[in-house]
Fold Pyrophosphate--fructose 6-phosphate 1-phosphotransferase.
Amino acid sequence: MMRNCLVAQSGGPTVAINSSLAGVIQGAIDSKKFDKVYGSLNGVQGLLNGCLMDLTEKVEQVPMFIELLKKSPSMYLGSCRYQLPDYTEDDAPYAYIFNKFETYEIDAFFYIGGNDSMDTVDKLNTYAKAVGKDVKIVGIPKTIDNDLCITDHTPGYGSAAKYVASTLLEIGHDTSIYPINSVTIVEIMGRDAGWLTGASVLARNKYNHAPHLIYLPEVAFDEAQFIEDVREAIKKYNNVVIAVSEGIKNAEGKYISATSAVEDTFGHSQLSGTGKCLEYIIKQNLQVKVRSVEINILQRCAAHMSSITDIGEAFRLGRHAVETALEGKSGVMVTAIRKANEPYSVKMGDTDVKNVAGLVKHVPREWINERGNDVTQDFVDYAYPLILGEPVVKYERGIPDYLDVSHLYPNN
């Protein structure tokens, strides 16, 4: 019998991360092994700042709390981008965090997030072992980038992929109306991996061929070849739509858009302007109308266009994390492993978090065509099942009615 458990969220928001949180809460309640489920506001920073909330009370007080949580985007507990130091150099944050665990009688800690969050899981678990603390530390994957290793895919990706594909289809309709040559460049998130940009291929149907060109970070970007690709596409399609990852690099490994050296706390380059850069290249070399658009953060919280497959798997992974901790496992990340595409099915598992933290899963080179300007049928077969199904979203005053998150606002 464990006493209480604690859950937190970290990194960028997604449509599905709250569904994983709901899975943890429901799994802990159903297990009857925990007295309370606490939530830490703003990730590990909430622990350091003493900002915890009783989620079991929320379930009792708010009607349909779990169901509303599953279908609300972003992060109900808030987020942070806080990097723990090496405990051998500075153990003060660790001592404080584990003191909080003792104060709140925490026997299991669940951290929902991406690559950097798994680094935090690894560090906390390593410290727990070093000082003999028996707190189970379990990571739950989340990221629209889909770049976590071992797991077949990450919650948040399917819904974001659905948004990207739908948007590219709509852009295809938008650009088709004028009988003139034009180029529309769509810049999509993806610093080191092109999973999200690749999903734009799902916009294609029996009449729509957009996007006509797709460029991912996994293949070196060649400017001369790009100009030729666009020139040939214009001859064939008249109005050309290009999907491009923000993180494309040249043969020397330099970001096309690296006009700024600004980095985040984890040392990741903050990119912007890839679409504008390609727009400039086309304007300088081709006499054609051209514009660029940046989807940016829009797909991260678009719950009105979410995937029921994504939401459901996120919930299952949250529940599975509770089961994993109750089995006595720690320092692991729960995973979704694909069993088949037709009919689509996955099984839940886990892996040592060291197999994930600090690593990046790239789109396989064989899933990109030889010229590097499109993806193959293998990518389509992989991504298609992840965007299927539409949850029922409640509307009020004509817009989606999501769970109240005013507890995250200052001075509230």
User: Anything to note?
Assistant: The chain is about 35% helix and 20% strand. The two ends are 36 Å apart (CA to CA).
